[in-house]
Amino acid sequence: MVRARDDKPEQIARAIADTRQAIRSCKLCGFFATDEICDICADSSRSTELLCVVEQPTDILPLEKTNAFRGAIPILLEGKFLSARPILGPDDLPH
């Protein structure tokens, strides 16, 4: 790219800048979105009763490639992780 004499480096830089401005986090799950809600959350054919929690947005991609899971996929962001220690018991979960 350093030796490029055409405008390819500028095109790449512009594409990166445009993408950074266009992509945001989905308000419902945290995945990448161009609107307030991502395509996954906007898909009315997905079950709202099934839940698969992932640690980061890129964890959704392999799961989505399989087409095996058709529920909601919220993302744990900002260092908020699930603990292996049982802090809540089954009776503490909403029914």
Descriptive overview:
The model is unreliable at 83-87 (pLDDT under 50). Helix content is 27%, strand content 4%. It has helices at residues 8-22, 39-42, 60-66; strands at 24-25, 32-33. A two-stranded antiparallel sheet has the order 1-2. Strand 1 and strand 2 (32-33) form a beta hairpin. The chain has 95 residues and is mainly alpha-helical. 11% of the residues are buried. The radius of gyration is 19 Å and the shape is elongated.
Topology, element by element:
Elements (H helix, E strand, L loop, with lengths): L7 H15 L1 E2 L6 E2 L5 H4 L17 H7 L29
Antiparallel strand pairs: 1-2
Number of strands: 2
Q: What fraction strand? A: under 5%
Using only C-alpha atoms, the radius of gyration works out to 19 Å
Our measurement of the CA-to-CA distance between the termini, rounded to an integer number of angstroms, reads: 57 Å
What is the share of helical residues?
25-40%
* Quaternary organisation: single chain
Number of helical segments with 4 or more residues: 3
Q: Sketch the topology as an H/E string, one letter per element.
A: HEEHH
User: What's the rounded overall pLDDT mean?
Assistant: 80
Secondary structural class: mainly alpha
The major beta sheet can be summarized as: 2 strands, antiparallel
Q: Tell me, briefly, the overall form.
A: elongated
The low-pLDDT segments are 83-87
Give me the side-by-side strand order of the main sheet: 1-2
